[in-house]
Design brief:
alpha+beta, Arc Repressor Mutant, subunit A, 18% strand, elongated, plasmid, PadR family transcriptional regulator
């Protein structure tokens, strides 16, 4: 799973959000390292909708503009959990090999 996808799904795991909210949350989660552009975000959201990982929860008009709120689907939550577990396992292995994990031995 690409990092941007992982971060978008992580943002939506905290509850439904509109596009700007997702962009702001992704920047916060990544410590400002990942800043999604609107075109990148909406292309990713369209792909994630087609894959069944996110859905549109609701739409509203704010200042004469349509604001669409997205939410994580159960399938999206399952895929995010699996990816988080995979990343965590790899990180644990790396830390252990560096001697930085509890009980880890240095190489």
């Amino acid at each position: 799973m690409q990092e941007a996808t992982f971060l978008i799904l992580t943002a939506l795991a905290g509850g439904s959000r509109h596009g700007y909210g997702i962009m702001a949350d992704v920047a916060g989660i990544s410590g400002g390292r990942v800043r999604l552009r609107a075109g990148t975000l909406y292309a990713a959201l369209d792909r994630l909708r087609l894959d069944g990982l996110v859905s549109v929860e609701r739409e509203e008009v704010v200042d004469s503009r349509l604001r669409r709120y997205y939410r994580l689907t159960p399938q999206g939550a399952a895929e995010l959990a699996a990816e988080a577990a995979r990343v965590q396992a790899h990180a644990g292995t790396a830390l252990a090999r560096l001697g930085l994990a509890p009980g880890g031995a240095a190489p």
